[in-house]
Design brief:
It is a single chain. By secondary structure, this protein is of the alpha/beta class. The chain folds into two domains: 2-151 and 289-337, Quinone Oxidoreductase, Chain A, domain 1 (Alpha-Beta Complex); 154-285, Rossmann fold, CATH 3.40.50. It is built from twelve helices and 18 strands. β12 (193-198), α7 (201-209) and β13 form a beta-alpha-beta unit. The longest helix is centred in the middle third of the chain and has 13 residues, at 178-190. 48% of the residues are buried. One zinc ion (ZN) binds next to loops.
């Protein structure tokens, strides 16, 4: 089968023919119809997150926003048939036995396998995955629409669920790209008053179309002052990987506000303790989501509440797409198709 393979960090992926995976017991073989390109893929390919570089399988097929069709079943697979449409998320497998799994936080499983990091992912014609950790795709969604939900969508959904933001509250979304677009739509559907902050007028225009109450261009506006004069944000979600976005977002919180850590800069982020105490602010981090989160966010998308603005490209263009993402030239999400 065709695949884009990482042989060495910081080098372009090699487009080559590799053997088709064989599903073992409990696994399914999936014919990939769409695979989203996530910002994390850049970090995995560059090896610049040391925590991931240590566990990255080399050679590796990247890609963890996979949507496709079951093409073959391993032994002892229940509940899936050949032809079913399923997706594979970042979390490829969890043990079900560790403390986190037993507490319902399988996204924090200490033994988890990660799609496109510790095992091969979806930048290929086929991928195999444990049937138990795939999720059926609702018929209302195309594979191209569904793919980004398997990382970007579920990540933002879990973060906002944990913040317990409610109708009428002010939500600040920092970064109006792939994840930010989901955050805006989820916020709007909850009834929150959403402000989108970005430095790209193109992304802010999309934010308005998606229902943002107000947009602020951080390169032209004093964002902290704008928020302070309107009462501050109950919740600020940072989907951008820029440290500067965190500094600004922290300043925009009202008392008892919550800063949601979703975008992951390589540098440390830090805040003045006196300001943290003065506002009794909450800082809440979030890591992708559980299978329950995934089912819930897929249902929202099937109901029409969530749409991801995607561009598509053939798998053969993966290196060009990664380079554009690196340069910040991609406004929404790019989904690759192997055909
Ligand atoms: Zn991702
Ligand atoms: Zn576990």
């Amino acid at each position: 089968m065709k695949a884009a393979v990482l042989h060495e960090f910081k080098k372009p992926l090699a487009l080559e023919h590799v053997p088709e995976p064989k599903p073992g017991p409990g696994e399914v073989l999936i014919k990939v119809e769409a695979c989203g390109v996530c910002h994390s893929d850049l970090h995995v390919a560059d090896g610049d997150w040391p925590q991931f570089a240590r566990i990255t399988k080399i050679p590796l097929i990247l890609g963890h926003e996979i949507a496709g069709r079951v093409a073959a079943l391993g032994d002892a697979v229940h509940g899936l048939s050949i032809g079913d449409r399923v997706g594979v998320p970042w979390i490829y497998w969890t043990c079900g036995e560790c403390e986190s799994c037993r507490e319902g936080n399988e996204n924090l499983c200490s033994k988890q396998q990660i799609t496109g990091v510790t095992v091969d992912g979806g930048y290929a014609e086929f991928v195999k995955a444990p049937a138990s950790h795939t999720e059926k795709i609702p018929s209302e969604l195309s594979s191209i629409e569904a793919a980004p939900i398997f990382c970007a969508g579920v990540t933002v959904y879990r973060a906002l669920s944990q913040s317990k933001i409610s109708a009428g509250q002010r939500l600040a979304v920092f970064g109006a790209g792939g994840l930010g677009q989901f955050a805006i739509q989820i916020g709007v559907s909850i009834g929150a008053q959403v402000t989108a902050v970005d430095i790209s007028e193109e992304k802010l225009a999309t934010a308005s179309v998606l229902g943002a109450f107000r947009t602020l261009n951080a390169s032209a506006t004093n964002v902290v002052k704008e928020f302070r004069s309107t009462g501050g944000a109950h919740v600020a979600i940072v989907t951008s990987a820029a440290k500067a976005a965190y500094d600004t977002a922290f300043g925009c919180l009202r008392s008892h506000g919550t800063l949601l850590v979703v975008g992951l800069p390589s540098e440390n982020i830090c805040f003045p303790p006196i300001m943290m105490a003065a506002g009794e602010v909450h800082i809440q981090a979030s890591a992708v989501g559980t299978r329950k989160d995934l089912r819930e966010v897929l249902a929202m998308a099937a109901a029409g509440t969530l749409r991801c603005h995607v561009a598509t490209g053939p798998l053969a263009q993966v290196n060009e797409v990664l380079e554009e993402l690196r340069q910040g030239k991609i406004a929404g999400r790019v989904v690759l198709t192997p055909q």
